[in-house]
Amino acid sequence: MHVHEEIQILIAEDDYLVGEMIQGMLSELGYAVVGLAMSGVQALELTAELKPDVVIMDIQMPGMDGVAAAQKIQECCQTPVVILSAYETPELVQKASKAGVNAYLLKPPDSRELERAITLAMARFEDMVALRRLNDDLQASNAELDAFAHTVAHDLQSPLGLISGFGEMLLLNYDEYPPEQHKNILSKITRTAQKMSNIVSELLVLSSVRQMDVEFETLDMVQILDEAQQRLAEEIKSSHAEIILPLSWPQARGYAPWIEEVWFNYLSNGIKYGGTPPRLELGVTEQPEGVLCFWVRDNGCGLTAVDQTELFTPFTKLSQVRAKGHGLGLSIVRRIMERLGGTVGVNSDIGKGSTFWFTLSSVLTNEIG
Question: How far is CA 133 from CA 99, 126, 129, 138, 165, in A?
């Protein structure tokens, strides 16, 4: 019989004769027995070494009992475990279930019960792994939701306070201010409202990156950069920023709206933290295996090693880390490139400016592949 020949079993039983009996049953059923452990510790070691599909574990084992060994196995190897016991009580079932045991087998087992326990353990283990994965995803979503709420409160609180304060000044002292001061206050309110609008737009982009499934396309990098610069027209004009572009771009694949957001954030940060006036040089470097590295080099004061490690922070950590104000935008950049299969980074030295970069696959590579 070779029905189960691809399923490998590790037996953990300190009674050699019982172990031999179970091994004989398994062989007759077509299972492959890969080892026999004589203690709980040895069962843990052999599980890590042999990576069996199922462990059949006696509950009474020297040094470390079967339940404790099963729990250790789940912590380090995540393998289905069948507990072999002379009795089965509600207390044992509860304790074993908490340890990750997937099925129980009463001594002395027969072939039919043995086969059923193995099948049940493997099925329950798959369900348990799927449930753990869903639970991990839920915890990650909850953590991101908390971070989202914190970021909204943090980033919108200050501009809202400014708008409220300026509005109250006009309301209470309108007649006391000359027209020129009215214009100045209204201009500050408008700029602050625009800042709030940008924050909301970034949060909406972050949400779309998390939820949308997109199709890759050949990118028109000239048009993408033109759109990004138009969004920054006022900042470019007021800062007298110089933006130097290459004569041409190699073709890359990605999703244009998201790549525009990447360039927008890189250019925005270059204008904010570049020199006076900012000078931004854009370019691309071809790397091995068809990878294109796009970059923005600024003439700012540079970043310390600590600041560099805190950039591109995962969104869930933005409430703890806000490196020089880059936080939200670069968190979005990181998320975008993770979804597109690219990477991000920064190279910087104090006094020598910074170079922010991201990678995409070239069209040629995709055509060859």
Answer: 18, 11, 6, 9, 48
Q: What is the pTM of this model?
A: 0.55
Task: State how many domains the chain has.
Answer: 2
- Tell me which of 133, 165, 181 is where a domain ends: 133
Task: Show pLDDT as tens, one digit a residue, over the chain (369 residues).
Answer: 445 668 899 998 888 888 888 888 888 888 989 999 998 899 889 999 999 999 988 888 888 888 888 888 888 888 888 888 777 667 766 776 776 677 777 778 888 888 888 888 888 888 777 777 887 767 766 666 666 666 666 667 778 888 888 888 888 888 887 888 888 888 888 888 877 877 777 777 766 676 677 889 999 999 999 999 998 998 999 999 999 999 999 999 999 999 999 999 999 989 988 889 999 999 999 999 899 999 999 999 888 887 777 777 655 443 443 434 445 678 788 889 988 999 999 999 888 899 999 999 998 655 434
Q: Is position 168 within any domain?
A: no
Burial (Cβ within 10 Å: 0-12, 13-18, ≥19) of residue 215:
exposed
Q: How many whole angstroms separate alpha carbon 168 and alpha carbon 163?
A: 8
Clarify whether residues 109 and 246 are in a common domain.
no
Among 109, 133, 157, the domain-final residue is 133
Q: How many residues does the chain have?
A: 369
Q: Which residues form the domain of 33?
A: 8-133
Q: Are residues 126 and 270 in the same domain?
A: no
